[in-house]
Amino acid sequence: MRQHYDISAVRKAFPAAEHVVYLDSGFQTPLSRPVKEAFERFLSEGFETAGPKQVWLNRLEETRAKVADFLGVKPHEIAFTKNTSESMNIAANALPLRAGDKVLMIQGDHPNNAYAFLNLRKKGVEIVFIPMTEVIDAESFRPHIDERTRAISMSHVTFHAGHRFDVESVGELCAQHSLYFVVDVMQGIGVVPIDAKTMKATFIGSGTHKGLLVPQGLGLLYWDATRTELEPAYLAAASLADPPLDFIARPDNMALPATAGRFELGNFNLPAVQALGAAIDLINQIGIEKIQQHCFELGDYLIERLDRLDVGLVGPRDRQHRAPHIYVIALPAADWLDYFTQNGIRVSPERDGIRVSLGMFNTIEDIDRLIEAIRARNAPTTQARTAVLSKLG
Ligand SMILES: Cc1ncc(COP(=O)(O)O)c(C=O)c1O
Where does the Aminotransferase class V domain start and stop, copy by copy (predicted)? Predict the structure, then answer.
């Protein structure tokens, strides 16, 4: 395997990866030194100066610019939220949908995306789920579009099998039919490069506690700033173009800004925002393309070793349709999860097996440890199978 970057230096930034075989970044990231340092800086500033809020808010704007750059958009198109669910709910409730309108989604997609839209059924909006297939692209949705269809909402990468759907072609389809397009990028961001404009998304929602390397409690929302008809369902002073400086609400001046700030409410998760700035710096120092390539190659290696053991992969195998970093192994989680934990290997139980999810710090040795654990437990079965085969002559 090629070295796309100094993997041992990167690994040193994630001490937890030395204590356990960490193959669970799709659940949550282990914390890195730069992220820890950003939190520590925030804490010591709070301790020593009772909180330099303006300094922190200036840093928030710097982080907003970094996020925007990361997604190929302008800073005023980015809002900070609490998590993916909040972002998806903000998006769902901003769309001007009425009774009888239809939204297309994918059966079995992440519930935090689905419920945001299912909740619109109380307004009479119809949510139509198309089947989840290994490949989802424009052709998957096209036959389901009719004169009542107004929007499509879907994940970029699935959490339960590592599909990487063709969001660009779906975005193009939405543009052709004047549909709103909402994308949940939570499972891919930080590993799969994202270009919001190529995706032609109206809204993109995400949290930051997986590929974006910070702890839970911070989310992102991209809003296509040309869609000024999209207004927030909730309002606070922070959402206004002209918040009252005397802190007395002005019913006659509630104009919204031309920025994604219209979707922001109240104070921010400032420490996590600062940590996110440090995390994006770390990703940029390595290069997202290199992280993606590294994970793809580890994935190729994993698939090849699983094949040798005759153990199946649940999701897509080819690079065109799979995420670089998420692989579900066809081993029943009820039988295998505790075994992996006892052997110092962190993975997640999934619908159809055991999910291995990779981060920038994972190595071939991590995959070897996993494979060796599977081989060791399967060995008696393999021997038994060989014995049966030899008896059969
Ligand atoms: C596709 C997807 N969306 C959303 C989430 C999580 O939602 P939230 O950030 O609201 O916790 C996850 C995983 O946790 C996910 O895989």
Answer: 21-370
CATH class, 34-284 region:
alpha beta
d(CA 163, CA 356): 13
pLDDT digits (tens, 9 = 90+) for 165-179: 999 999 999 999 999
Tokens for 151, please give them: 């929007």
Round to whole Å and give the CA distance between 253 and 231.
15
Mean pLDDT of 211-215: 98
For residue 86, which atom of ligand 1 is closest to its CA? 10
Identify the residues whose C-beta falls under 6 Å from ligand 1.
83-85, 110, 112-113, 155, 159, 184, 186-187, 207, 219
Would you call 210 exposed, middle or buried from its count of C-beta atoms within 10 A (0-12, 13-18, 19+)? buried
For residue 266, give the DSSP letter. S
CATH no., domain 7-30+287-392: 3.90.1150.10
Q: Do domains 7-30+287-392 and 34-284 have the same CATH topology?
A: no
CA distance 353 to 375: 16
pLDDT per position as a tens digit, 234-257: 999 999 999 999 999 999 999 999
> Per-residue pLDDT tens for 72-98?
999 999 999 999 999 999 999 999 999
Q: Which residue has the tokens 């139509």?
A: 128
